[in-house]
Amino acid sequence: MVENESEICLGHPVSVKYVNLKWQKRGFKYSLIAIILSLIFHICLMAYAILVIGEIVETKDPAGKIRVSTAPDAPVTMALRIILLIITFAAMVKDIFQIKMQRFRYFTKLSHYLEMAMHIMVILFLLPVNKILTKTHIGAGAFAVLYSWMTLIQYLKVVPVMGIYIIVVQTIFWTLMKGLSSEVNAVFSSLLETLSLEPFVLSLTPPFEDPLR
After folding, report:
1. Whole-angstrom Cα distance, residue 37 to residue 31?
2. Among 151, 164, 195, 194, which residue's Cα sits nearest to residue 18?
3. Which partner for 27 in 11, 31, 128, 167 could form a disulfide, CB atoms 3.0-4.6 Å apart?
4. How far apart, in Å, are the Cα atoms of 88 and each of 45, 92, 186?
């Protein structure tokens, strides 16, 4: 229906019933496993990013404020890193088998490119293990979190309750992007990437001094 530009039919009760039956008979088990793994991966990635980037707290030092975070080689971050790397390399093996089976058709889906980009950024974010987080790690982590959100949304498309709305929104988005000029598309893409780099920018910016002190 989406390919034939008949997205409005997706909301019809007959279409919803058909999708639900197909979901229960064929895709429920495999899709549920994929969604659960994606959720575990996303939660672990967010937890790892929050721990290693840390927060800015008040101190009695002349500097006023310092950044407090968990060391990348701490036990809790190492445990999260192991979980993330296991899921990442397992997903990469799955992608290799998909490329072998689907060949050129594998590269025709945007979701596959998002997954590959996410895997690369996650590896750059997690490795190598240093006692102090570098700017490269933080930058890669910002993109990894962005691509993780986008990949999770792609997995949620197979859920009948949410999938219909996600597909419709994506179709509207791509239709809008096609109608805009290349200059506007470039600006919009730059803004999207800038939002993903917010943790990176904040990590490089020194804490502000309180002007009232």
Report:
1. 10
2. 164
3. 31
4. 11, 6, 30
DSSP string covering 65-91: EEEE---TTSHHHHHHHHHHHHHHHHH
The residue among 143, 132, 151 whose CA lies nearest residue 91 is: 151
Three-state SS for 58? strand
Token duo for residue 45 = 């990635």
Side-chain-facing half-sphere of 170: CA atoms under 13 Å: 15
Nearest CA among 42, 18, 50 for reference residue 153 = 42
